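Thread: Newbie trying to understand structure tokens

Hi all, I'm a second-year student working on a class project, and my supervisor (Dr. K.) asked me to get a predicted structure for one chain before our next meeting. I've only ever worked with sequences, so writing a 3D structure as a token string is new to me. If someone could post the tokens and maybe explain what I'm looking at, I'd be very grateful. Here's the chain:
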Amino acid sequence: CADRGVCRQLTAPYSPQQNGVLERRNQIVVGTARCLLKAKGVPNEFWGEAVTTVVHLLNCAPTKAVRGMTPYEAWQGDKPAVSYFRTFGCVAHA
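---
Reply by user tm_fold:
Sure, no problem. This is what the structure looks like when written as tokens:
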């Protein structure tokens, strides 16, 4: 991780106050996943897929943390492909 620019920061156990940014990010993920499920009327059994979708979307979207690029681009070095994106909850045939 150090080679990729990820630095390790230790916090006291059981102290969510020290994880303010992470706690807010988790709230964003949970809230957005809940909205995806409710908006499309998808059963709660798909909670895991909704959370995975939200995290993937957030990694492909611009953020203030890395200026001028997406988190995916900062980690991988190239722009993320988004041509395969579809509406969450749309009908799909296998």
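A couple of things are worth pointing out once you decode it. The chain has a mean pLDDT of 86. The first helix runs from residue 20 to 40. Feel free to ask follow-ups in this thread.
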